[in-house]
Design goal:
Order of helices and strands: HHHHEEEEEEEE
Strand order of the largest sheet: 2-8-7-4-5
Number of helices: 4
Distance between the termini: 38 Å
Length: 226
């Protein structure tokens, strides 16, 4: 599903160009069929012209449906795809190389800017101005609806999402996703009102436009019942 959506988003200009050319051809075919029908003298000629007209109308209807489907994928399905996937995902080791291939340019950026992280901070993968959560801070106590601030800014940016899970758990739940890169600004909101009080992990996951997912920025937080 994800691969299909990425394909239709990435090649959207070419798909729309093909659909426009198909629509022009279909309209031309319809006009010619109508002209044939007006000039037809015999019943067989009229029947053939009528069939040509129906074929053109069917083709135009199909093209219109495909154009609408492409529009829905780009505007609605694409931005919300990560948030729709509520299935648990395994925890990614922040010091390991992701299974997807990451460009040397991006690896150089991360390598040059990765901060020192100690085990006691329970922070992993956070790189200022690249992949980072600046609010809430690690260990903060939060309640109700909060605004997340941070960075989601990588070469060939695709989209980002943020997720949470109970502490020491590998079951992540997506909160929200966005296709706009962010530098020290609002990532989104998180309503914790319905989440039981306790210790949790919050992570920011950034994916490039080729579908390569980078090691996430993960911080610990404590949710308190309002």
């Amino acid at each position: 599903m994800k691969v299909i959506v990425v394909f239709f988003i990435h090649f959207a200009p070419f798909i729309y160009l093909l659909l426009v050319l198909g629509m022009i051809f279909g309209i031309r075919r319809l006009v010619l069929a109508r002209s044939e029908k007006r000039e037809a003298i015999y019943g067989l000629e009229r029947e053939i012209a009528h069939n040509h007209s129906n074929q053109a109308i069917t083709a135009l209807t199909l093209i219109g449906f495909l154009a609408m489907a492409e529009f829905v994928i780009i505007v609605f399905l694409g931005p919300n795809l990560p948030a729709l996937a509520q299935l648990p995902t395994s925890t990614i080791n922040a010091v390991a190389v992701p299974t997807s291939t990451i460009s040397p340019e991006l690896m150089g950026t991360l390598g040059a800017r990765t901060p020192d992280v100690t085990a006691t901070t329970q922070i992993s993968g956070c790189v200022p101005e690249v992949i980072n959560i600046t609010f809430p801070k690690a260990g903060d106590e939060i309640k109700g609806s909060i605004t997340l601030i941070g960075d989601a800014n990588i070469p060939n940016f695709g989209f980002y999402k943020y997720e949470f899970s109970p502490r020491d758990s590998e079951s992540w739940s997506a909160v929200e996703a966005n296709r706009k890169s962010v530098i020290n600004d609002k990532l989104g909101t998180w309503d914790t009102s319905a989440i039981p009080q306790g210790d949790y992990q919050l992570r920011l996951v950034v994916t490039d436009n080729q579908g390569n997912e980078l090691p996430p920025c993960t911080i610990p937080v404590r949710i308190k019942t309002p």
